[in-house]
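Record format v2
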Amino acid sequence: MARLVMKFGGTSVADVARIHAVAERVAATVAQGQAVAVVVSAMARVTNELVALTRSVAPLHDAREYDAVAATGEQVSAALLAMALQSLGISARSWLGWQIPIRTSGAHGSARIQRIDTRELETRLARGEVPVVAGFQGLGPRGRITTLGRGGSDTTAVALAAVLGAERCDIYTDVDGVYTADPRIVPGARKLDKVTFEEMMELASSGAKVLQIRSVELAMNYRVRVQVLSSFGDAPGTLIVDEGEIVEKQVVSGIASSREEARITVLGVPEGVRAAARVFGPLADANINVDMIALTLGPDGRSASVTFTVPRNELALTLHTLEGARRAIGFEAMEHDASVAKISVIGVGMRSHAGVASRMFKALAQKGIAVAAVSTSEVKISALIPEAYLELAVRSLHTAYGLDAAAT
Amino acid sequence: MARLVMKFGGTSVADVARIHAVAERVAATVAQGQAVAVVVSAMARVTNELVALTRSVAPLHDAREYDAVAATGEQVSAALLAMALQSLGISARSWLGWQIPIRTSGAHGSARIQRIDTRELETRLARGEVPVVAGFQGLGPRGRITTLGRGGSDTTAVALAAVLGAERCDIYTDVDGVYTADPRIVPGARKLDKVTFEEMMELASSGAKVLQIRSVELAMNYRVRVQVLSSFGDAPGTLIVDEGEIVEKQVVSGIASSREEARITVLGVPEGVRAAARVFGPLADANINVDMIALTLGPDGRSASVTFTVPRNELALTLHTLEGARRAIGFEAMEHDASVAKISVIGVGMRSHAGVASRMFKALAQKGIAVAAVSTSEVKISALIPEAYLELAVRSLHTAYGLDAAAT
């Protein structure tokens, strides 16, 4: 019997009516003869409320206690969905992370799944029962509840699909798939039928919030076919698959963008060739995530300017850290800009196609959009631009790479 | 080092400010050199909301899934209180039922505690850590979360005090002790300094909702000294102790009352002497809790009238059950009254004092209050009266037994 993991996000189980709708969908899939394991997120808004509660009790709280609070959201939704399934005559039960158990590292708040004991789940699936697994949570090495971080339920679902040898992992969410660009910005954006793991990884890290990046990484490593689709309709979604499964590769599959960026430029850093190490050492010590980096050597080669981006909500911490290390780094001045955005062109086809980058710069230049920094990977080119130009840039690139609906 | 179990009810941890106030109180007790274990209920209203949620998903829900939902309330409050304690520099951590574990029967929704593993708690207490235990929950025989039923956190606290050999179990609530009568009804009601386990049992089963009856039973069996006191003040509360600890015994300690009663009279039941068995057999099969019973044999002794009370919310089910068993029972008619109340006079001293009952009937008669049924135990006399007379009856009896504040 084919096995399927179905994962439902917070908006899909936001209220009692939607929980029943999800149950109907699961029941219909079971009726088709599939063996189904379900993974659920907390009901929409619940996790945010729980997090706010822990913050108001103690701003600097014990991550282990935070996890005990945060994990209750999925505990509730899993049990409610099991009840809803039972009311449809489906044999179902809820499973918490510690009950399976899903063993994780002890990194509370961002734990990593290490081992999933599938014996009991296998037995239940074999007798036609539907396990409803609370996503986002696991059991740490010291017997305490851990959580996997934001979007962790996607990771739970993909991991479960991997260990159960599921044919596919369907991620139901409030969008109906992965688009060539954000449809709110580009009205002509098209839904992609298929996208490769590599492209999805880059999309996830470039601002397309459809899937958590760790779940895509996991899917890629274990070759789990993932489908992203809407829980509010019946249309097929976007399949995330191995490159080999995509016959006709697009040079560029999509344009992603992110506003959550801030730019910092450190001017007059001595020892030009070692400037990057001088600047990024203290930031690494402070656990600050540096993304794009551009380095400009001064004319004499003895000093350099270092430009880089950090998540916007880490800007203050970054400035504070650099100021504290000013003497050690020895820089002359520092400037920053929190009104920048990152725009990325993504596609596995660009590996074998020249001129993808130049088309990007040409399109941006034609609209008079200044590029402050650039970074590239094998399947992505990102540019840092003024935030005000974000929509214009996305639309221009969408057209420039022939992605508009009319163009296909 | 003296050990103390401190239990805080839902109103005591109703919001963030109150959780901090509870933490301050625990910290002050720790500062006095006591080893403290804390038990918490869910934040006020949370359990009701969770119960409503399960009902709206499936009115006839799986009790195991219900328990998984309901137990999250205490999971959250225990973790938040641990955080609040940590913020005061107290070493503390939350403990869920399954983590200790508190092993219970498999009767989901009303499980009974069977065994508590104290090893880990002992170790933590010895090193000065404060365990914050989620009340109301345990681990069932099949590895699932169980709950102990309404007010179950009191039971958790008393059980913990018993197994840890605590000197006392302090139950913090929104009232400052046990009163001679409900102060909202009798302005002159006095707080009792001490009350015996037996009296407290009768009070709990007669409408005084200070403590869950099972927790009192447990305290009596394991001789755990329990104190009921307010978390909103510093006054001493009421100590529930062994009879031997009370030197000057009152004949009557208090007057309790309950509106949650309904009366049913079944008329013309054949085989008068076996009438009770005929009527109560079907009710027992339907799990209906019958309380007061009065049986009147007809003049010929061949038929009887049976009057009894059931919880008001079980009236419809009771009538339905009796109607269904009408042919088997063979009764002639049935009448019921949902506007009745039970009033109880309680005191260990009545064992050795005559005339306690006659004083009750006299006082009620003087006010023209009709008594529909009577039941007695060693330390209690209860009378069923029209609900409209409840306050009048409580005040009259409070005066008749010399309990008014001025009278002491």
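Residues 341 and 390 of chain B are 7 Å apart (CA to CA).
The radius of gyration of chain B is 23 Å.
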